[in-house]
Amino acid sequence: MITTQRALRSAITVAIATGITVSLSGCFGNPLENLTNGLVEGTVENVIEGTTGLDVDVDGNGTGTGASLPDSWPDEVPVPDGNILLSLAVGGSYNVSVTVGGQDAAEAGYERFLANGYEMTSEISLGDGARAYGLQSDAWIVQYSWGEDDERIATVNITATPREE
User: Fold this and answer.
1) Are 136 and 159 spatial neighbours (Cβ–Cβ below 8 Å)?
2) What is the pLDDT of residues 63-81, one digit of tens each?
3) Domain limits for position 50
4) Contact 160, 74 (CB under 8 A)
């Protein structure tokens, strides 16, 4: 059973990740570009981590290049090859936003979960070029979603929370 504190942490993680994904997807101006303009990468990360308690990795120029997964990212949660825009870890839960070549590459990332023994628990079609899936394994509950921008580049968002028994 999920505890109230864990549910709250998971909800906060998903809300932050969703907001970041939407703002970095090209639908709006990139807030990291303004936030990091002229600042050193380490300073930005320290401010975000100190304020939120999240383990965040951002690059120094706001373009998303150079970001990486947190060192504690679980091997059991696959991430598609692409450009990591932002990643975070909080209270044992993880999130990453990564751009991939398009809808086919995003779909291939989803298929990796199924090939690794995850079961699909929910599926949402969000219109052209956008999908969301709920997945679970014995150890993880995962939300895997993506959307394409006008240039047909897909931004994949993965949120993984440990499964309590």
Assistant:
1) no
2) 566 688 888 999 999 999 9
3) 4-162
4) yes
